[in-house]
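Reopening this ticket.

The earlier resolution said the output was attached, but the attachment link was broken on my side. Pasting everything inline this time so it's all in one place.
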Amino acid sequence: MRAHRVRALLMGGQACVFYGAAEFSRDTDLAIVADSANLARLRRALDDLRAEVIAVPPCELKYLRRGHAIHFRCRHPAALRMRVDVMAKMRGVDAFAKLWKRRVTVELADGIRCDLLSLPDLVRAKKTQRDKDWPMIRRLVEAHYFQNIAKPNPAQIRFWLRELRTPELLLDLARRHAATCRRLIPARALLAHAALGKAGELERALIAEESAEREQDRSYWLPLRAELEKLRHAQ
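Inline output:
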C-alpha cells in the first residue's frame, strides 16, 4: 500500500494488536478514501499482490461510497491466501478526511511505517452486530486505561468515560473524576449510574447500550445486504 501511495488506514484485528488488545486475524482490514485516483492506486497494489475479488460486490467506487466492504484474496507467495477487506464508509464513523487527520503512525521492525485508525475511531468502527467485536472493544479501552492511568490527561479521561465497558473501572473513574463524569451524562446516560455508584444499574445499562448499538447496526446493513443478494442472483 505504501509503495503505491494508497491512502489507507489499517483497522480491524491487526490494528487491535498495535493497541495492546491482541487478536489473531488472517484478514487485513483497510479504510480508504473513495476517489478515482486512490482506487486506481489500490488496484495497482492489489495487482502486485495478485489479489482477486471474492464474491460481491465488485471493486467499484459506487459500492464503496454506499458503505459496502470489498473483499480480496491474495495469490502472491509472500501473502498467500491473505484476505484484504476494504471499506470507505462505516456506520457512525467520520469521513476519511477526519480519520486521516487523527491517524496513528507506527514504525515496524523493518522500518516500514503503518498508518492506523486512531483508537477512538477504531472503537467506534467496532460497534457492530458481531459477537466478537464487543469483547474486543472492552479489551481495547481497558488496555489504553491501564497504559495511561498513572498520569492521564483530560482527553484520555473523557475517552474512558465515554467508552469503558468495565463496570468496576467506570465506577472508580466516576468517583475520582466526578465533575467530568457529570458533564458527560448527556452524551452517555449510563454515567448517571456510575456517578451514583450504582453497580447493578450500571451493568444493566451497559448491556442495554450494547444491544441498542447492535440493533442500529443490523438496521444499517439491511439495505446493503439486500443489494448484495441482488448482485449474487445477477451473477
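Reporter confirms the inline version is readable. The longest helix spans residues 199-234. The chain has two domains: 8-125, 133-218.
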